[in-house]
Amino acid sequence: MMGKPEDIVLLDENGYRIDGRKKYELRKIHMEVGVLKNADGSAYVEWGKNKILAAVYGPREIHPKHLQRPDRAILRVRYNMAPFSVEERKKPGPDRRSVEISKVIRGALEPAVILQLFPRTAVDVFIEVLQADAGTRVAGIAAASLALADAGIPMKDLVAACAAGKIEGEIVLDLNKEEDNYGEADVPVAIMPLKNDITLLQMDGYLSKEEFNEAVKLAIKGAKAVYQKQREALRDKYLRIAQEVGE
Ligand code: CDP
Prior knowledge:
Ribosomal Protein S5, domain 2
């Protein structure tokens, strides 16, 4: 969020956004499950111009051993941005932002994973952002949750996620990079739709109480649409396997 230059119009007089979307429209989303041979589970998500790969390993033995929990598995998450994923080359390796995002994504996923089934082990989730265009944490959560399901990790529900925000004084769904940069607020949300649980809620910027409520409601609605796409992607994987074996 930064000051918007005069010449940038995020919402035109006909109600269209910079990328041609209406206020409540999601970017185009494509999801694929089981894309990596050497991970236990994986998924690839294209969400607008975001391109994100998630890989899951586990449940597996923990190193170092003192991290083992006698009663459950631990969930570890690493969110990482490729140097070429952003306009200004990102220095490789963890920075403050990626450490924080890894932590909040872990918190968003953990309530869904049934960790008690695998004492003393770790489930490792790697999220690699290949191309970033705002909303990478929500797209990363969607990808990671698919990769966990693909790895056969028992879960209470898939975790779905989406952001809403404010541009030109209006609440809109799913901010892209320009809207994130020059908009007034961004509210990413993650949910477990089956029971309407919220596992992530953050806010960057400034909103009135009414606007905040509207943004959260809209983000939840967006996340429910994302959930349907996740389910389709999982179904497609099994249809593909069935076709391969001639069923
Ligand atoms: O990606 P998300 O919206 O979850 O997180 P953010 O910290 O609000 O970042 C918004 C966007 O800023 C990212 O998706 C990238 O497109 C961009 N960004 C960047 O250009 N360079 C960075 N070092 C970090 C983020």
